[in-house]
Amino acid sequence: MDFSELFKLSGLLGRFSPDGKCLASCVQYRLIIRDVNTLQILQLYTCLDQIQYIEWSSDSLFILCAMYKRGIVQVWSLEQPDWHCKIDEGSAGLVASCWSPDGRHILNTTEFHLRITVWSLCTKSVSYIKYPKACQQGIAFTKDGRYMAVAERRDCKDFVSLFVCSNWQLLRHFDTETQDLFGIEWAPNGCVLAVWDTCLEYKILLYSLDGRLLSTYQAYEWSLGIKSIAWSPSSQFLAIGSYDEKVRILNHVTWKKITEFEHPATVTNTKTIVYKEVEKSPSVETERFSFPPTRALASSVFSTQSKYDISQVPVSFQYIKPVADRANPKMGIGMLAFSPDNCFLATKNDNIPNAVWIWDIQKLKLFVVLEQLCAIQSFQWDPRQPRLAVCTGNSKVYLWSPAGCVSVQVPTEGDFQIVSLCWHPSGDSMALLSKDNFCVFFMATAKDGTKWQVRFS
Amino acid sequence: MGDWKTVTVPVLSSDSKNIFQYTSEKKISPPNMNSQVLRLPLPSSKSMHSFFSAFCTEENIEQSISYLNRELTTLGFPSIYAESKGKELNLISIINCMNELLVLQHKNLRAQEEEQLELSKREIVGLQERDRQLQSKNRNLHQLLKNEKDEVQKLQNIISSRATQYNHDMKRKEREYNKLKERLHQLVMNKKDKKIAMEVLNYVGRADGKRGAWRTDKTEARNEEQMYKVLLNDYEQRQKQLLLENAELKKVLQQMKKEIISLLPPQKQKPKERSEDGPVLSDLEEDIGELNKENMWELSCETVREQLTNSIRKQWRMLKNHVEKLDNQVSRVHSGTLNDKDVISREDHELETEKLELEIQQCKEMIKTQQQLLQQQLMSPCDDDTTLLLQDCYLLEERERLQEEWRLFQEQKKNFEKERRSFTEAAIRLGLERKAFEEDRGAWLKQQFLSMSTDYKQSENVTTPSAFIGTSDQDNRVVNSMSQQKKPHCMLSGPISAESCQTSQYISHNSFNAALKKPAGDSKPNQWEESDKEETE
């Protein structure tokens, strides 16, 4: 295991390129491209304003930087550092920007969601998509990049338009039976589109690629509904996390619920393993103090080591009941993610903010619960294997795999509060992002023939 | 309890006085004692006879009568004797007493019954009370539940009405908002902002290297085609998976069916079952016959599937019944036949022991007979034939022994000769070595002498031969001793016969030392060798 030094970062904008060779990071208005293995600066670009969003093109040749305040998108080329491209939306404003799957078109969402402009880098053509829906996930591309689904709203009714990405031709346009469409997501096989309603109404609709409604699922009425959804990588399962602290799994054959996962405050099943993070009392040897203190020493003095203990079931977690009179309450299943091999589902119940629940999909049972000392900020699965990385806002990154669980202290000087993390596409390293810095965590590569060791304590 | 009745009994004799006595005396009697006595239940009919026989027998009639009289008088009954001191019994009084006693007994029983009746009545009342309370509680709870349900329904109605209201409001606001957006959009578009543009150094080629195509109907059709292709692919894949799964499941079902059939007992044994499942069996057989054909498995039509599942269900039910029956049997066997087992086992055990005893006896008899035979053999004189045979046997034995000894003798002889040969060789070697040594010594002495003589040449020349002779004498002496040593061998090598080989060896060893001292002539090694050669030939 190896950690890089801390680099400056702003806006949590640290992204690996899709081919895994470069790492892009932003510091205010500068875009820095580094080599992944050596972290040497390959390119340095300067944009016109503070960068709010960056995205790599699918072929890793271009990178776009969006500056919402100025309404400008700048595109940089890695092959030709001299090449430049600037898209100015002017008075239309800019709210969101993204690449098309072919890496040659940029979709800009103007202010107030007036329209989506499709700018082409190949030709001078510009396309417009009218009445886009102002929701979180209004644009969705299929995994193979052939089709794009756009949520629209006209005359107080929701519609979905399907476009062919190669020439932006409209394929299908249909209305959805939703009150207020909240999000759309394609299944990984690109044949089914999941459309779900606002949290005031628990409703999820499944449409086929040709626009037919395949199925509707509604678990209950009146209470707050869907909070998050996730497709399994094989498209077999659709996991729906809702505000009632349950995850419901639908199967792709009948689109009916096959099971419900509950997230109670007390876990009683003896077959569940509960890993509890405990602090190890730091051992500071006063004789070894040197001036200036070494980095390792500094880290050990200023941050407490922690390790995992296996708690005996039944275990009770810290349960928070949110205030009832506020909107967007912190309750329900806020995060859902399937492991890449389809075997596990990681969830977070916002009522129990310190725990990550890992479910075994083969047995449809709760497998592991990770109880942390601080609230979970984010977790992400390794793109290649069933390994979960969790960060909780301190300077530790936690890794779980079916073999065990380990807490890794990032050796840093001073404060490094990891808020987000991002795996490298190969699964060998990951970027740990905090508000002002980031560092790259290299797991032991096959050079010495050993994969990272799980240290049980 | 104290409800005494005066019984007017018809006067039979002049003993009617007693009756009046009886009536007057009843007040005197203490009630407690009476009640105590009266509460005693009458003995049951079964033990009546025994009781009576126990109390009064032919021997103690007088005593028992007197005892009864005493008891009755203490209780307030009139005496049963005709006269105070006489032995004649007043029959009438006896009968009256008996009647009184019976009446008292009846009263007692009735009182008990009444008591019991009252108790049970009170109990009933208590239980009824409790029942009423519980029912009222139940009603209350039902009412509460109903209230809650009503409230829930009400709240739900409120929520739904509010939701519709909110939706309506939302829609209104959204329309307004859309209008604003349209307005804004118009303004933005009208402005023709030159800023809205894209500046690019040079246009980039497409990712796939092709040129962009116009959007035409053809492309539209192609898109549709493509889309359907994608969908069809997906469906085909899914169908393949499902087919595989189906095939596997069918295999499993067939296996299960076969195993169930094998587990079930053959149906021909029990006619009862046959009659019940007659039609079923025939169907089953038909099914089995049909479905066991390999071809049928390939079909996936409704009827085949249904038949398969139905047949498996039937067979499973039969198996279940069978297992249940077996369970019952086992439980019955367990509970009922435990005693028999003991008995049976004991019997078996006894049979076994008898058998073993018989065997033992037989063996003993055999041993006895054998012993007898053996003794007979030893003691009784045998026939001539047998003796001759025996003698022959003995002779044979001895002969064999002798042959063995002869063999041993021969082996030892060979060993002895080998040893002797090795000794002679060693002796020859030794002689040769000695000879050489003597020669060397002689040469050395000569040299010394010469060296000495060169010194002594001036002084004397005579002494040289003596010195020389001395050495030669010494040599001779050595040779003689050597020859002496060899002599005993030569002596002994002569007489060797086959029979006394061993003994001669012993003698040779003993006389070795003796022979050393004997003087001998000039026998050189050569001579000895020759004699040895003679001997060996």
From TrEMBL, chain A:
Pfam families: WD40. Gene3D superfamilies: YVTN repeat-like/Quinoprotein amine dehydrogenase. It comes from the Eukaryota. Coiled coil: none annotated. InterPro entries: Centrosome-WD_assoc, WD40/YVTN_repeat-like_dom_sf, WD40_repeat_dom_sf, WD40_rpt. One of its GO terms (cellular component) is MWP complex. This is WD repeat containing, antisense to TP73. It comes from Phasianus colchicus.
